[in-house]
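Table S2 (continued). Query chain:
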Amino acid sequence: MSQKAVEQIVGKMLLDTQFRKLMSTDMSKALAGYDLTEEERQGFKDTNLQDFSQSLTGLEERVSKGIKLN
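Corresponding output:
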């Protein structure tokens, strides 16, 4: 299992809009170079990335304005 790679990808998805778009349009390319098991790759494929991206919209706005999350 490659927990570190999964954490890196999730972190990048949280912080990098372009990477999220690539995950939606060409996931194989986005995940290239990461040491993932087939189950982990399938887990990303099974994730509704559109919902994920929409849920981050408000967070990105708050972070860009420097508003505290707590």
